[in-house]
Amino acid sequence: MAQLDIISVNISEQKGEIKLPVSSIELTSLGVTNDAHSGKWHRQVSLLGSESFAKFSEITGKSFAWGEFAENITTSGLVLNNMRPGDILRNSAIELEVTQIGKKCHGDGCAIFRDTGACIMPKEGIFARVLKGGTLKSGDKLEYFRKTWKSGVITLSDRASEGVYADLSGPEIAVSLEEFFSKTGRVNKTDYRLIPDDKLLLEDSLKELINSGCEIIFTTGGTGIGPRDFTPEVVKPLLDKEIPGIMDFIRMKYGAQKPNALLSRSVAGVAGDSLIFVLPGSLKAVKEYISEIIPMLDHLIAMKSGLDNH
């Protein structure tokens, strides 16, 4: 079990100033009570490890007090900036969700920077929001739980599902997702499904993936204008919000050279907590769509989660 030791809890009344150690802090849905950074946003609580203090002291030849880099919680035991948004820190009373790793340094506009000549929070600090409030004090511990992301891939194909030929498009999406999660330091589990062209089976599969907590779902196949092309009609009623610009852009980009690409009725949107992308069935088209969508995923995930990481 990975855990953090709490070695100091700290508060400041003004932003951009050092925080001073206190005997305990009260965490609520707004963050740390009486702290300048509390509020309805994603950076309610800041954490910095004593390991970062030690490293910075060695570089500068100076010693620094807990709270001097404006962290609410000074920790020991884990390298904080190895964590990723979505990870959880909790004990029996408190639960925090990691929302951001590091931040922009404001340089001379920050009192901490002016006093110390530099700041380690932008590179090594992390930020969290409160999921469950309570009291935290020096000597307490927080257990660390790495988030396992869930994704779903559904291929619709009568012939592939009958074994006439191998499905190449679905596995291509699964591999691309695994590469994306791996490169961003996340753990992912993909639920891959190969089904025939069946409306009810598609709808049931989508609902199962959405209800199971899949953050990202891709379908491939059924976006044309043939009699058995119905994927957009099944998906659209399930969406809470459609994101038309993504697919419009991809159609126009590739349709400029290959007009047949304009015939795809691909769809993107949000259903519950799931981002859903409806892609054409050909491997070539899937590669084109994935090459445009994957670079957007981090920002889409942040937006969907209510994180303003600009």
Structure characterization notes:
With 310 residues, the chain is an alpha+beta fold. The chain folds into two domains: 3-145, M1 Pyruvate Kinase, Domain 3; 148-304, MoaB/Mog-like domain (Molybdenum Cofactor Biosythetic Enzyme, Chain A). Helices cover 29% and strands 29% of the residues. It is built from ten helices and 17 strands. The strands form three sheets. A seven-stranded mixed barrel has the order 1-6-5-9-8-7-11. A six-stranded mixed beta sheet has the order 13-12-14-17-16-15, sandwiched between helices. It has a three-stranded antiparallel beta sheet with strand order 4-3-10, with no helix packed on it. Strand 5 (45-49), helix 1 (50-60) and strand 6 form a beta-alpha-beta unit. It is elongated and about 70 Å long. The mean pLDDT is 92.
Report the radius of gyration as a whole number of Å: 24 Å
> Helix-strand pattern, N to C?
EEEEEHEEEHHEEEEHHEHEHEHEEHH
Helix content: 25-40%
Contiguous runs where pLDDT drops below 50 for at least 5 residues: none
Question: How much of the sequence is in beta strands?
Answer: 25-35%
Q: Topology of this structure?
A:
Blueprint: E1 3-11, E2 20-22, E3 24-28, E4 31-32, E5 45-49, H1 50-60, E6 73-76, E7 88-90, E8 95-101, H2 111-116, H3 121-124, E9 126-132, E10 134-137, E11 141-145, E12 148-156, H4 158-161, H5 169-183, E13 187-195, H6 199-211, E14 216-220, H7 231-235, E15 241-242, H8 244-255, E16 267-271, E17 274-279, H9 283-293, H10 297-304
Parallel strand pairs: 5-6, 12-13, 12-14, 14-17
Antiparallel strand pairs: 1-2, 1-6, 1-11, 3-4, 3-10, 5-9, 7-8, 7-11, 8-9, 15-16, 16-17
Helix pairs in contact: 5-9, 8-9
